[in-house]
Amino acid sequence: MPYLPTDVHLAHARHELAAMRALLTPLDLPVPACPGWTLRDLAEHVGGYNLWVAAAINEGHGDLEPPPAPEDVLAWFDANAAQELAALALDPSTPAWTFGDDRTVAFWRRRRCFEFLIHRWDAEDAHGAPGPIDAELAWDGVLEAVEFFAPRQVRLGRIEAPAYAVEVSDGARSVAFGPGEPAVRVEGTAEELLLGLWGRRPLPGGVDLSHWTP
Protein backbone atom coordinates (compact mmCIF):
# COMPACT_ATOMS: atom_id res chain seq x y z
CA MET A 1 0.00 0.00 0.00
CA PRO A 2 1.23 3.55 -0.68
CA TYR A 3 2.84 5.25 2.29
CA LEU A 4 1.97 8.74 1.05
CA PRO A 5 -1.40 10.12 -0.11
CA THR A 6 -2.05 10.56 -3.82
CA ASP A 7 -2.01 14.36 -3.74
CA VAL A 8 1.54 14.20 -2.38
CA HIS A 9 2.52 11.88 -5.24
CA LEU A 10 1.11 14.38 -7.72
CA ALA A 11 2.96 17.30 -6.15
CA HIS A 12 6.24 15.38 -6.19
CA ALA A 13 5.63 14.22 -9.76
CA ARG A 14 5.31 17.82 -10.89
CA HIS A 15 8.38 18.89 -8.95
CA GLU A 16 10.61 16.00 -10.05
CA LEU A 17 9.63 16.32 -13.71
CA ALA A 18 10.36 20.05 -13.69
CA ALA A 19 13.70 19.47 -11.95
CA MET A 20 14.67 16.86 -14.52
CA ARG A 21 13.62 19.06 -17.44
CA ALA A 22 15.88 21.85 -16.21
CA LEU A 23 18.87 19.51 -16.48
CA LEU A 24 18.36 18.30 -20.05
CA THR A 25 21.30 20.22 -21.49
CA PRO A 26 23.69 19.69 -23.14
CA LEU A 27 21.82 16.89 -24.87
CA ASP A 28 24.99 14.98 -25.71
CA LEU A 29 26.06 14.71 -22.05
CA PRO A 30 26.47 11.00 -21.08
CA VAL A 31 24.23 9.58 -18.34
CA PRO A 32 26.43 7.24 -16.24
CA ALA A 33 23.46 5.56 -14.53
CA CYS A 34 22.07 4.52 -17.93
CA PRO A 35 25.11 3.17 -19.82
CA GLY A 36 25.15 4.22 -23.46
CA TRP A 37 22.61 6.98 -22.96
CA THR A 38 22.96 10.72 -23.26
CA LEU A 39 20.57 13.33 -21.90
CA ARG A 40 18.84 13.25 -25.29
CA ASP A 41 18.15 9.52 -24.83
CA LEU A 42 16.81 10.24 -21.35
CA ALA A 43 14.53 12.95 -22.76
CA GLU A 44 13.28 10.58 -25.48
CA HIS A 45 12.65 7.81 -22.95
CA VAL A 46 10.70 9.91 -20.47
CA GLY A 47 8.94 11.91 -23.18
CA GLY A 48 7.73 8.78 -24.95
CA TYR A 49 6.40 7.28 -21.76
CA ASN A 50 4.68 10.56 -20.94
CA LEU A 51 2.60 10.01 -24.09
CA TRP A 52 2.05 6.35 -23.23
CA VAL A 53 0.75 7.15 -19.74
CA ALA A 54 -1.46 9.95 -21.02
CA ALA A 55 -3.06 7.43 -23.41
CA ALA A 56 -3.41 4.89 -20.60
CA ILE A 57 -5.41 7.45 -18.65
CA ASN A 58 -7.30 9.28 -21.39
CA GLU A 59 -7.89 6.38 -23.78
CA GLY A 60 -7.91 3.44 -21.35
CA HIS A 61 -5.25 1.24 -22.99
CA GLY A 62 -1.54 0.48 -22.88
CA ASP A 63 -1.09 -0.11 -26.61
CA LEU A 64 0.27 3.27 -27.68
CA GLU A 65 3.58 3.18 -29.52
CA PRO A 66 4.96 6.71 -29.23
CA PRO A 67 6.43 8.08 -32.47
CA PRO A 68 10.17 8.74 -32.64
CA ALA A 69 11.20 12.01 -31.08
CA PRO A 70 11.82 14.85 -33.55
CA GLU A 71 15.06 16.80 -33.81
CA ASP A 72 13.67 19.45 -31.46
CA VAL A 73 13.37 16.93 -28.66
CA LEU A 74 12.92 19.48 -25.87
CA ALA A 75 9.84 21.14 -27.39
CA TRP A 76 8.42 17.66 -27.95
CA PHE A 77 9.28 16.73 -24.36
CA ASP A 78 7.55 19.84 -23.01
CA ALA A 79 4.37 19.18 -24.99
CA ASN A 80 4.25 15.55 -23.85
CA ALA A 81 4.92 16.50 -20.25
CA ALA A 82 2.05 18.97 -20.28
CA GLN A 83 -0.24 16.29 -21.71
CA GLU A 84 0.67 13.78 -19.06
CA LEU A 85 0.51 16.22 -16.15
CA ALA A 86 -2.98 17.23 -17.25
CA ALA A 87 -3.99 13.56 -17.18
CA LEU A 88 -2.42 13.03 -13.75
CA ALA A 89 -4.32 16.06 -12.45
CA LEU A 90 -7.66 14.32 -13.07
CA ASP A 91 -9.56 13.03 -10.05
CA PRO A 92 -7.37 10.23 -8.66
CA SER A 93 -10.34 7.83 -8.67
CA THR A 94 -10.78 8.26 -12.45
CA PRO A 95 -10.56 4.85 -14.17
CA ALA A 96 -7.37 4.23 -16.15
CA TRP A 97 -5.54 1.36 -17.77
CA THR A 98 -2.62 0.30 -15.55
CA PHE A 99 -0.39 -2.72 -15.10
CA GLY A 100 -1.35 -3.08 -11.44
CA ASP A 101 -4.43 -3.99 -9.42
CA ASP A 102 -5.23 -0.30 -8.89
CA ARG A 103 -6.96 0.74 -12.13
CA THR A 104 -7.19 4.43 -11.40
CA VAL A 105 -5.25 7.64 -11.97
CA ALA A 106 -3.88 7.27 -8.43
CA PHE A 107 -1.70 4.38 -9.64
CA TRP A 108 -0.08 6.56 -12.28
CA ARG A 109 0.46 9.47 -9.90
CA ARG A 110 2.58 7.23 -7.70
CA ARG A 111 4.33 5.36 -10.52
CA ARG A 112 5.26 8.46 -12.48
CA CYS A 113 6.36 10.26 -9.33
CA PHE A 114 9.08 7.65 -8.87
CA GLU A 115 9.90 7.42 -12.57
CA PHE A 116 10.54 11.16 -12.61
CA LEU A 117 12.43 11.05 -9.32
CA ILE A 118 14.86 8.35 -10.47
CA HIS A 119 15.46 10.03 -13.80
CA ARG A 120 15.88 13.43 -12.13
CA TRP A 121 18.61 11.78 -10.08
CA ASP A 122 20.10 10.32 -13.28
CA ALA A 123 20.22 13.75 -14.90
CA GLU A 124 21.80 15.31 -11.80
CA ASP A 125 24.32 12.48 -11.67
CA ALA A 126 25.16 13.17 -15.32
CA HIS A 127 26.05 16.71 -14.25
CA GLY A 128 28.11 15.33 -11.37
CA ALA A 129 25.88 16.53 -8.56
CA PRO A 130 23.05 14.14 -7.62
CA GLY A 131 20.76 15.84 -5.13
CA PRO A 132 19.02 14.45 -2.05
CA ILE A 133 15.76 12.54 -2.05
CA ASP A 134 13.04 13.32 0.48
CA ALA A 135 13.13 10.53 3.08
CA GLU A 136 9.36 10.02 3.29
CA LEU A 137 9.07 9.93 -0.49
CA ALA A 138 12.02 7.55 -0.75
CA TRP A 139 10.41 5.14 1.71
CA ASP A 140 7.22 5.09 -0.35
CA GLY A 141 9.43 4.23 -3.34
CA VAL A 142 11.00 1.38 -1.37
CA LEU A 143 7.52 0.05 -0.65
CA GLU A 144 6.61 0.23 -4.34
CA ALA A 145 9.75 -1.69 -5.29
CA VAL A 146 9.35 -4.40 -2.64
CA GLU A 147 5.57 -4.78 -2.47
CA PHE A 148 4.68 -4.19 -6.12
CA PHE A 149 7.61 -4.68 -8.49
CA ALA A 150 9.29 -7.65 -6.79
CA PRO A 151 6.12 -9.83 -6.84
CA ARG A 152 5.42 -8.66 -10.39
CA GLN A 153 8.88 -9.73 -11.53
CA VAL A 154 8.20 -13.21 -10.10
CA ARG A 155 4.74 -13.37 -11.66
CA LEU A 156 6.13 -12.45 -15.07
CA GLY A 157 8.88 -15.07 -14.80
CA ARG A 158 11.65 -12.48 -14.83
CA ILE A 159 13.10 -13.63 -11.51
CA GLU A 160 12.82 -16.77 -9.41
CA ALA A 161 10.54 -16.72 -6.39
CA PRO A 162 12.81 -16.20 -3.35
CA ALA A 163 13.52 -19.20 -1.15
CA TYR A 164 13.50 -17.01 1.96
CA ALA A 165 12.39 -13.55 3.01
CA VAL A 166 14.62 -10.50 2.70
CA GLU A 167 13.86 -7.57 5.01
CA VAL A 168 14.59 -4.03 3.89
CA SER A 169 14.70 -1.41 6.63
CA ASP A 170 15.56 2.24 7.12
CA GLY A 171 15.99 1.64 10.84
CA ALA A 172 12.52 2.88 11.79
CA ARG A 173 10.43 0.99 9.23
CA SER A 174 10.79 -2.30 7.43
CA VAL A 175 9.22 -4.31 4.65
CA ALA A 176 9.98 -7.88 3.57
CA PHE A 177 9.62 -9.99 0.45
CA GLY A 178 9.69 -13.78 0.43
CA PRO A 179 8.40 -16.63 2.60
CA GLY A 180 8.96 -17.14 6.31
CA GLU A 181 10.99 -15.12 8.73
CA PRO A 182 13.57 -12.82 7.11
CA ALA A 183 16.93 -14.54 6.61
CA VAL A 184 18.64 -11.41 5.28
CA ARG A 185 18.27 -7.84 6.48
CA VAL A 186 19.35 -4.83 4.45
CA GLU A 187 19.42 -1.59 6.42
CA GLY A 188 20.23 1.93 5.27
CA THR A 189 18.62 5.30 4.76
CA ALA A 190 15.46 5.34 2.68
CA GLU A 191 17.41 7.12 -0.07
CA GLU A 192 20.18 4.49 -0.05
CA LEU A 193 17.60 1.72 -0.23
CA LEU A 194 15.62 3.30 -3.06
CA LEU A 195 18.70 4.02 -5.18
CA GLY A 196 20.03 0.54 -4.49
CA LEU A 197 16.78 -1.18 -5.43
CA TRP A 198 16.79 0.73 -8.73
CA GLY A 199 20.43 -0.13 -9.39
CA ARG A 200 21.76 3.42 -9.03
CA ARG A 201 23.96 2.78 -6.01
CA PRO A 202 25.13 -0.39 -4.21
CA LEU A 203 22.84 -1.40 -1.39
CA PRO A 204 24.33 -1.35 2.13
CA GLY A 205 26.11 -4.62 2.78
CA GLY A 206 26.61 -5.32 -0.91
CA VAL A 207 23.30 -7.19 -1.29
CA ASP A 208 22.06 -7.01 -4.89
CA LEU A 209 18.29 -6.65 -5.16
CA SER A 210 18.24 -4.60 -8.35
CA HIS A 211 16.63 -7.57 -10.13
CA TRP A 212 13.50 -6.81 -8.12
CA THR A 213 12.81 -3.79 -10.34
CA PRO A 214 12.51 -3.69 -14.16
Automatic annotation (TrEMBL):
<dbReference type="GO" id="GO:0005886">
    <property type="term" value="C:plasma membrane"/>
</dbReference>
<dbReference type="Pfam" id="PF07398">
    <property type="entry name" value="MDMPI_C"/>
</dbReference>
<dbReference type="Pfam" id="PF11716">
    <property type="entry name" value="MDMPI_N"/>
</dbReference>
<dbReference type="InterPro" id="IPR034660">
    <property type="entry name" value="DinB/YfiT-like"/>
</dbReference>
<protein>
    <recommendedName>
        <fullName>Maleylpyruvate isomerase family mycothiol-dependent enzyme</fullName>
    </recommendedName>
</protein>
<dbReference type="InterPro" id="IPR017517">
    <property type="entry name" value="Maleyloyr_isom"/>
</dbReference>
<feature type="domain" description="MDMPI C-terminal">
    <location>
        <begin position="136"/>
        <end position="207"/>
    </location>
</feature>
<dbReference type="GO" id="GO:0046872">
    <property type="term" value="F:metal ion binding"/>
</dbReference>
<feature type="domain" description="Mycothiol-dependent maleylpyruvate isomerase metal-binding">
    <location>
        <begin position="10"/>
        <end position="123"/>
    </location>
</feature>
<dbReference type="InterPro" id="IPR024344">
    <property type="entry name" value="MDMPI_metal-binding"/>
</dbReference>
<dbReference type="InterPro" id="IPR010872">
    <property type="entry name" value="MDMPI_C-term_domain"/>
</dbReference>
